[in-house]
């Protein structure tokens, strides 16, 4: 499974950022995003920054990752699922706009 992870910038070096997540440090390529600063949060995939995120979004992603890990281990209860996926519970799934046009009767 390929998942982008939230990481906090510890230090900057040219087009790279030293980032931390859960006690581990990784050097991340930041050449494709606007210049960040130490303390900023990044969404990182395969040691490359995809985009800057704020701390609230980083926390939401971490909660979803935790809920997913618990579910995969067979240990998730309703509280864990609500904590990780509260934004998806009690609502109908939505198609992206470009797919909605392809489904008859949906606009």
Which features characterize this protein?
107 residues, alpha+beta, SH3 type barrels, 2 domains, five-stranded antiparallel sheet, 3 helices, 28% helix, Hydrogenase_HupF/HypC
Topology:
Layout lengths: L4 E9 L2 E6 L2 E6 L11 E5 L2 E6 L1 H18 L5 H8 L11 H4 L7
Antiparallel strand pairs: 1-2, 1-4, 2-3, 4-5
Helix pairs in contact: 1-2
Task: Provide an overview of this structure.
The chain has 107 residues and is of the alpha+beta class. The chain has two domains: 7-53, SH3 type barrels; 54-91, no CATH class. Helices cover 28% and strands 30% of the residues. It is built from three helices and five strands. It has helices spanning 55-72, 78-85, 97-100, and strands at 5-13, 16-21, 24-29, 41-45, 48-53. A five-stranded antiparallel beta sheet has the order 3-2-1-4-5, covered by helices on one side. Strand 4 (41-45) and strand 5 (48-53) form a beta hairpin. Helix 1 (55-72) runs antiparallel to helix 2. The protein is globular. The mean pLDDT is 93.
How can the largest sheet be summarized?
5 strands, antiparallel
* End-to-end gap: 32 Å
Broad structural category: alpha+beta
> Helix-strand pattern, N to C?
EEEEEHHH
Anisotropy-based shape:
globular
- What number of domains? 2
Question: Radius of gyration, rounded?
Answer: 17 Å
What is the number of beta strands? Answer: 5
Helix content: 25-40%
How much strand?
A: 25-35%
Would you tell me the overall average pLDDT? 93
Q: So what's the oligomer here? A: single chain
Number of helical segments with 4 or more residues: 3
How is the largest sheet built, in terms of strand order?
3-2-1-4-5
Which CATH first-tier class of the largest domain would you pick? Mainly Beta
Unreliable sequence segments: none
Q: What is the level-2 CATH architecture name of the largest domain?
A: Roll
